């Protein structure tokens, strides 16, 4: 028997690119096909303008490859921070369109959609506030702060992403019929009750795993996080018979 592959689409946090998940390709078992999702305005899509509206960005993510007919019947969505909010928005839009839903939604380092507070986000054009926020969260290499050009790109991307988050408006809807699994850092500034509130978004299985570390616990505790992801997705594994030998 062998495990049927499951594709894990991974959405980045604010200010980041798909490269934050590249290490996972080699560190998760082969039956989990890690597919980092690149957003416009960064990484391999740096030449494209950032999309600064939540609904427009979600719509684009759902209509672009690999989403358009390319996700397949066996996939899951993972997002960290802003990426978790985008993943949630994608599931809601896919459900409304009658499209195949992911086997599970994995939300990391993000308060539940109904508990989001965008009033505390740094000013749209305040570099000092954005830099302070980057340092507070602790996920940005010091080399970025030392390189004016790289820092400018990072701040512009982060500012655009915060505007995406600011434009999100929660709409109460029927609970999802897919499992929702939440990952959280014990030292993150997010209220633990706001993490637990994800449970109201699903009528299916729910779990909440805590890890040592702050907002970027997924880097600080990478091995434990990947172990948890493997355990969660193992519940979606389907064992299929090995191919029968060809008669000669």
Plain-language structure description:
With 248 residues, this protein is α/β, with parallel strands linked by helices. It has one domain: Alpha/Beta hydrolase fold, catalytic domain (Rossmann fold), CATH 3.40.50. 37% of the residues lie in helices and 15% in strands. The chain is built from 10 helices and 8 strands. The protein has helices spanning 24-27, 54-63, 67-70, 82-97, 127-137, 142-146, 148-166, 192-196, 217-220, 222-234, and strands at residues 2-3, 6-11, 32-36, 75-80, 105-108, 180-185, 206-211, 239-240. A 6-stranded parallel β-sheet has the order 3-2-4-5-6-7, with helices on both faces. A two-stranded antiparallel ribbon has the order 1-8. Strand 6, helix 8 and strand 7 form a beta-alpha-beta unit. Helix 2 (54-63) packs across helix 4 (82-97). The longest helix is centred in the middle third of the chain and has 19 residues, at 148-166. The model is unreliable at 238-248 (pLDDT under 50).
């Amino acid at each position: 028997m062998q495990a049927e592959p499951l594709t894990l689409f991974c959405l980045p946090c604010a200010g980041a690119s798909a490269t934050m998940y590249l290490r996972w390709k080699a560190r998760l078992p082969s039956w989990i096909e890690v597919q980092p999702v690149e957003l416009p305005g960064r990484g391999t899509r740096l030449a494209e303008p950032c999309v600064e509206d939540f609904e427009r960005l979600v719509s684009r993510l759902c209509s672009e490859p690999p989403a358009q007919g390319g996700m397949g019947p066996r996939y899951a969505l993972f997002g960290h921070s802003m990426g978790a909010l985008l993943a949630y928005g994608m599931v809601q839009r896919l459900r409304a369109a009658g499209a195949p839903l992911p086997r599970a939604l994995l939300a990391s380092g993000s308060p539940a959609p109904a508990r989001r507070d965008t009033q505390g986000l740094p000013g749209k054009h305040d570099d000092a506030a954005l830099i302070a926020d980057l340092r507070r969260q602790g996920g940005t290499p010091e080399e970025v702060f030392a390189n004016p050009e790289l820092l400018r790109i990072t701040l512009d991307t982060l500012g655009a992403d915060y505007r995406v988050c600011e434009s999100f408006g929660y709409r109460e809807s029927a609970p999802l019929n897919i499992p929702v699994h939440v990952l959280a850092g014990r030292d993150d500034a997010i209220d633990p009750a706001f993490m637990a509130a994800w449970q109201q978004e699903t009528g299916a299985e729910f779990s909440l795993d805590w890890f040592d570390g702050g907002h970027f616990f997924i880097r600080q505790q990478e091995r434990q996080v990947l172990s948890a992801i493997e355990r969660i997705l193992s519940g979606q594994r389907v064992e299929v018979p090995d191919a029968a030998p060809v008669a000669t």
